[in-house]
Design a protein that fits this description.
This protein has 13 helices and seven strands. By secondary structure, it is of the alpha/beta class. Helix 5 packs antiparallel against helix 7 (169-200), helix 9 packs antiparallel against helix 11 (265-280) and helix 11 (265-280) packs across helix 13.
Length: 332
């Protein structure tokens, strides 16, 4: 049997095809009951999309079914249709599975999933804290306070704690400060776990041998890229992260534009920051020499982005070969 499963938050729409492509079953199943369904069709092939909640469902189904996880972006390009319903999507998944045309998505290991949960969880907490810092800036602006205050710094919070605002804004300010304090404690606690996790994985231990790469950056790179063996070359991983230049060709002309920004913006930002630190703070000979050469004929922004791309290539080969950072042509 070929089973297409359109996954939603609480339920899944399912279509089952036989080897001739005929529909033998269509059913909506509560996600809590998917294990019973999988047992009924044990040994069959199934396809689901890589939605936000697919990990648990994949693990449940894989106990009984041969599950393929479809890449939602590529799947949309292939199966775009004017009629979009749960039943149509489930049947389309089943049909594409039967034809062997499912664009597969990477399925992270448990270690990668755990790393993603940690770094993305920290990112969410930091975003929430920034939101309340911005609320405080809004309160200050509303009351004509032009002093440059940083609510996320200890000095800034001490200044704000002594600030006298009229009611009810004084209550709001106190609430925002309490929330920032709580979030800061949670972030610091989570960072201890992240540092411990980064120190326990061979991949992140290798990445941390690069000047300018912190434990948080190393774990984030590992979490978002996953197993490098799934990439055929360093060009593939560069494209995956979105640091590859967009190239347009027409006739005899060839134009190389800005980077594609296709992948994780968080990873690109960290790679750029790590490159900046390696060049300007750690003065890493390999990356500095590359950056300086480019900066002479391009803008510093373009040079640092290109350096981030070179850093990512080094990371790929380090992980692929299981080697520490030892760039070519650098004196001991």
């Amino acid at each position: 049997m070929y089973i297409g499963i359109d996954v939603h938050k609480r339920y899944s729409q399912i279509a089952v095809l036989d080897h001739n492509g005929e529909i033998v079953d269509e059913v909506r199943v509560e996600n809590a009951n998917l294990e019973d369904f999988a047992q009924q069709y044990a040994g069959s092939q199934a396809a689901i999309e890589a939605t936000s909640n697919y990990y648990h469902i994949y693990d449940t189904l894989s106990e009984y079914l041969d599950v393929t996880v479809a890449n939602p972006g590529k799947l949309k390009l292939i199966s775009d249709t004017d009629k979009k319903t749960d039943r149509v999507d489930a049947k389309q998944l089943a049909r594409m599975l039967r034809l062997g045309s499912i664009p597969e998505s990477y399925i992270p290991t448990d270690d990668v999933r755990e790393a993603r949960a940690l770094v993305r969880g920290r990112h969410s907490l930091v975003e929430n804290r920034t939101e309340y810092a911005n609320k405080i800036h809004g309160l200050l602006d509303d009351h004509g306070i032009s002093q440059d205050v940083k609510p996320l710094s200890v000095e800034g919070r001490e200044f704000l704690a002594e600030l006298s605002l009229p009611t009810p804004w004084d209550t709001l300010l106190a609430s925002y400060l309490d929330i920032i304090e709580t979030l800061t404690e949670q972030i610091e606690s989570l960072e201890e776990v992240i540092e411990e996790r980064a120190g326990s994985l061979k991949e992140t231990q290798l990445l941390m041998t690069i000047p300018g790469v912190s434990y948080f950056t190393a774990l984030t790179i590992y979490a978002e890229i996953g197993d490098v063996s799934r990439f055929d070359s360093d060009k593939d991983v560069v494209s995956y992260v979105g640091l590859n230049p967009v190239i347009r060709e027409s006739g005899d002309s060839r134009f190389e534009g800005s980077i594609s920004k296709r992948g994780s913006g968080r990873v690109r930002w960290l790679l750029v920051q790590s490159s900046y630190t390696a060049v300007h703070t750690c003065q890493d000979e390999y990356l500095s020499r590359f950056y300086d050469r480019l900066a002479q004929r391009k803008s510093s922004k373009k040079a640092i982005v290109a350096t981030a791309r070179k850093l990512l290539v080094s990371m790929y080969h380090m992980l692929d070969r299981e080697e520490v950072y030892d760039p070519p042509g650098v004196s001991a």
